[in-house]
Amino acid sequence: MTPRDFQWATGEVWRDHFLKSLARCRRLRQALAMPFSEGAFESTVPAALFSLRGRRALITGAGQGIGLMLARGLGMAGAEVVLNDKEPARLGEAVARLRREGLAVEGCVFDVTDEKTIAIGLASLARGEFEVGGGIDILINNAGIHQRAPLELMSTAAWQAVLDVNLTSAFLVTRGVVAGMLQRGSGKIINICSLNSEISRPTIANYAAAKGGLKMLTRAMAVEWGGRNVQTNGIAPGYLRTEMTDVLTVDPVWERLICARTPAGRWGEPRELIGAAVFLASRGADFVNGQIITVDGGLLAAL
Description:
Blueprint: H1 3-10, H2 12-33, H3 38-42, H4 45-50, E1 56-59, H5 65-76, E2 80-85, H6 88-100, E3 105-109, H7 115-126, E4 138-141, H8 156-184, E5 187-192, H9 205-225, E6 230-237, H10 246-249, H11 252-261, H12 274-281, E7 292-295, H13 299-302
Parallel strand pairs: 1-2, 1-4, 2-3, 4-5, 5-6, 6-7
């Protein structure tokens, strides 16, 4: 028997391993018990993984609602953010609000369903006409609308408008942005899908068809560009209090129904999407591709 064998036989090595593990546990407990320090937090590996400093993001439909909240969240994580909206006044107000909060943001007006205005807007970004200039590292396709009607009464115009904004726009804007990502060899694309990518209800057939299509477009993009270090994922919000859901939140019957069917027992808030968005936009999600993160308080799991 060698001396090493003897040590194992007598338990000395095992005891040494145990004591070292115990010391690591004690250091971990001490670290967790320390008061929060912004400087100490920023120096940790997780903070570096999820920091968006030095990254530029473009968010469509960011003049209000979910898009505006995601712009705030990515800006707070360190990104320079370009907000898009087709309404100049609404966009200007959103940009001014975030600038007052100390965030590095700009506005870029274009209609996400119009190839010509998309090209003009993206060209202006590429030329550096804005303070937030240069390439886009993160794209969030968020623009969306609702036009509710019973399917048998729905007009072709209402059907097409919802598909154009909620589905085709993601193809058009991504096509304009992804070339730069592929050239640089990195990029993050996040498509804002929906609970209705999976389930539907009466009067929203156009919206469910568009969001279901967006889910599959997300996966197609992931397969198309994953090998070139561009990751594409989706976030599927459940029932959140936004301008688009005002028609539902003012209905007491619907309000109670959603709360009763959601395990969390309440509606969600747009700010509760920030964590998923920052994660998917960060280096921490470099091996996450083609996934849809559902943020719905557990509703889909309970159906």
